[in-house]
Specification:
alpha/beta; six-stranded mixed beta sheet; 32% helix; globular
């Protein structure tokens, strides 16, 4: 299998000078991220709120150009493409949003919403072929022909997310970014949507980036996992390897918070404090102020954590990873 998408040394900064009384400051949402997505596999992107997950998803799709570094889809540098070539490429890259209601026009029939990508990206199709394609997509996501003429408010949250998924698949993409696609849904409905995504991934031979803070969901749907902390990848591995033997202290803390019923109890790793502000990230390893391992180190080793940024090596960014 070949590489479909990749980001190299990506930094995304936002000018926060006005918010800080005119002081020249940058907020770095991503700070040196390098990772790739293999064709046919699903990469889970996890981390606390503010870690840069959604920003990374938008960079992968070319919706946001990095301040530094590059984002590639197949052989295309997304940051170097002119608007028209980028528009043509968008047929192959689609996004499923977190809130299905806000991503649908409240006064537009849902059948028309699913048809729109075909009108933009498939001008070669006839009206009859578009109608057939829309109906087929509705059936694939578990909806009926009678639903085509209804408005978004006439559906449940799970049904609206099925419509959003159908719209994302309309132009036959190769790459799908799902940004917290089930977090706004009831637990029972979450399972249905996850099973649907897995089924559609196989049917349409999709490559996916799945953004979530819920590690149970990540374990269910993803082949690989990248763990973000304050805009940096701190650990990356296959799902099986990461859940069996997490190496970074932050990853171990996240996994220890997963509720378990029965079986051997897991020692809870409680992190102190909140995630630092990206406006003033800690020096060196940005995780060291909250790291349970840091307190057990010798003074010289603690100084190294404070002064030297750990690079991602063998899938983990920690000077003292176990």
């Amino acid at each position: 299998m070949s590489e479909l998408a990749r980001v190299d040394g990506v930094r995304v900064g936002f000018d926060a000078s006005r918010a800080l009384f005119g002081k020249p400051r940058m907020l770095w949402a991503l700070d040196g991220v390098t990772l790739s997505l293999t064709e046919g596999r699903t990469l889970g992107i996890v981390g606390e709120s503010g870690s840069g997950k959604s920003t990374l998803g938008r960079v992968l799709l070319g919706l946001l150009r990095p301040t530094e570094g590059t984002a590639h889809f197949e052989a295309n540098d997304l940051g170097a493409l002119a608007p028209e070539p980028l528009r043509l490429l968008r047929r192959h890259m689609q996004l499923v949003f977190q809130d299905p209601y806000s991503s649908l026009h409240p006064r537009r029939k849902v059948g028309d919403a699913v048809r729109e990508p075909l009108e933009v990206h498939r001008p070669d199709l006839t009206e009859a072929q578009r109608d057939e394609r829309v109906l087929s997509l509705f059936e694939q996501v578990g909806l009926k022909a009678e639903h085509l003429t209804r408005l978004p408010h006439e559906f449940s949250g799970g049904q609206r997310q099925r419509i959003v998924i159908a719209r994302a698949l309309a132009a036959e993409p190769k790459f799908l970014v799902a940004d917290e696609p089930v977090s706004a849904l009831d637990v029972s409905v979450q399972a249905q949507i996850l099973n649907l995504l897995l089924e559609l991934k196989q049917r349409h031979h999709l490559t996916m980036a799945f953004i979530s803070h819920d590690l149970k969901v990540i374990r269910r749907v993803c082949d690989d996992v990248a763990v973000l902390y304050l805009g940096r990848v701190v650990e990356q591995a296959t799902t099986e390897k990461l859940f069996a033997a997490p190496r970074h202290p932050y990853t171990r803390a996240l996994l220890s918070a997963i509720p378990r019923l029965g079986g051997a109890p897991t020692q809870r790793v409680v992190l102190t404090g909140e995630i630092p502000s990206p406006l003033a990230p800690p020096s060196g390893c940005t995780f060291h102020p909250r790291c349970p391992l840091y307190a057990k180190l010798s003074a010289p080793d603690q100084q190294r954590c404070r002064a030297e940024r750990p690079l991602l090596k063998d899938g983990v960014a920690c000077h003292f990873a176990e």
